[in-house]
Amino acid sequence: MKANQKLQNRIDKGYHICVGLDTDLNKLPENIKKTKNPLLEFNKRIIENTYDIAASYKLNLAFYEAEGIPGMECLQETLALIPTEILTIGDAKRGDIGNTSQMYAKSLFDHFGFDASTLNPYMGYDSVEPFLEYENKLNFILALTSNKSNKDIEKLVLHDGRFVFQKVIEKVKYWNKQKNCGLVFGATNSSELEENVNSFGKMPVLLPGVGAQGGSLEEVVKIFNRSENNSFIINVSRGIIYADSTEQFGKTARKKLVELNNEIEQLKK
Amino acid sequence: MKANQKLQNRIDKGYHICVGLDTDLNKLPENIKKTKNPLLEFNKRIIENTYDIAASYKLNLAFYEAEGIPGMECLQETLALIPTEILTIGDAKRGDIGNTSQMYAKSLFDHFGFDASTLNPYMGYDSVEPFLEYENKLNFILALTSNKSNKDIEKLVLHDGRFVFQKVIEKVKYWNKQKNCGLVFGATNSSELEENVNSFGKMPVLLPGVGAQGGSLEEVVKIFNRSENNSFIINVSRGIIYADSTEQFGKTARKKLVELNNEIEQLKK
């Protein structure tokens, strides 16, 4: 099934929360730390408790790479636990010259089997093109990110008065010939989201930054409600997976996800 | 030894060529393909034949990640083969929000033990800051890259008439409080290099793009000769490691590196 379709199927059910598996060995419950493969055991419990009501899973590669090769093995094993009908996003923010990006695409899509990637647009079209050649995959390209320093480059003002990130959105729309591009737009930037949401067209949008980073779920949902684009997914990592540091963390993760889903349902009415 | 010092020691000897270990399983000589661990065997031979006259080694993570976990094992084993006095660059072009970049830094510097990284500046200061906290390491931040699509974002014109990449250079100079920043500047952009070289200060510069990508070694060396900055390293990957597809590839790699070193020596006279 095409990545786009997987996402749409979940959105059609009203699910907009992407569960971020930013799994950090130091933050795991004590009973999990004692297991043979703590990262994997933790992810397994989270997935078991959320897979039927999540919009997608986003695996942040940094957290797995930080554990070296055992971490990469855990990444691979985690992906195998996620039912195939759910979109999996390899959040790696890659981007390099063509022959190198081709290798990164091969790693994320062929080797690990992710449905989607996140990409950094700084190096321009030929740096993302090898990813776009995979017509059944989906590529979320950074527009305006959720961190404070987004002002440093993304919000530089161009000669025509627009911000750099607005030019990126324009370019991504142009690059989207195969309908396999999306955008990353930080939920911490609600006024910029409101101003720019209509420039996204129908492209899927991944919004990190709700919760620990201070973005508002309510504002994001209201803004998309007023737009013609329903393909938004809000990433929540710490607010779901670390909501409870006891043995009950799996059930609590589900409870938190249910609450978020309900909140969105109410806001969409 | 600090990363900066490792680099300077080699530059003081007149060595400016960074050997790029973009090792691709499909491009290896037949006799190497038959060995138990072809990627590692190939790298071993290249390193044995070049370590005493190379300025540094740059390992392109994409090429190892593309082979999955065995590839990452090879990356680790390759690093163990490089003498500790030579600068090793983990070319991964990372950059993400703070807590994620911290994990990438942990992976590259603590787990793999690289001396240096390459970073993407799009997300701004807080996305590179966790790398800059490692005061003994070195971080080459993308300014103007070697690919054609560098025009898409890097060469957008700002409201003050400067290019985005020029603003990046200004910012990196400001971020360089611990003297552990450098720049990536594509050797394919010789006119831009000439115009901007004096804005680099004394920061080390990594220049990819000579050879297969069309950049001119002669122009790069002449431009730096006219500047006050001697800390430049020119990356050559394919032109050294794939110069010969026979069993003699190791000796040929050395021969090519000697030729490049001699060419630079002549140009510096």
Major β-sheet strand ordering of chain A:
1-2-3-4-5-6-7-8
Please give the CATH class of chain A. Alpha Beta
Describe the sheet with the most strands of chain A. Answer: 8 strands, parallel, barrel
Reported CATH architecture of chain A: Alpha-Beta Barrel
Oligomer state of the chains in this structure: homodimer
Distance between the termini of chain A: 30 Å
The residue fraction in helices of chain A comes out at: 40-55%
Provide the succession of SSEs of chain A.
Answer: HEHHEHHEHEHEHEHEHEHH
Strand content of chain A: 15-25%
The radius of gyration over CA of chain A amounts to 18 Å
Sheet/helix structural class of chain A? alpha/beta
Number of helices of chain A: 12
Shape type of chain A: globular
In the CATH hierarchy, the third-tier topology of chain A is known as: TIM Barrel
Q: Name the CATH superfamily assignment of chain A.
A: Aldolase class I
Q: How confident is the prediction overall: mean pLDDT of chain A?
A: 96
For the largest interface, the chains and their residue counts are:
A-B, 58 and 58 residues
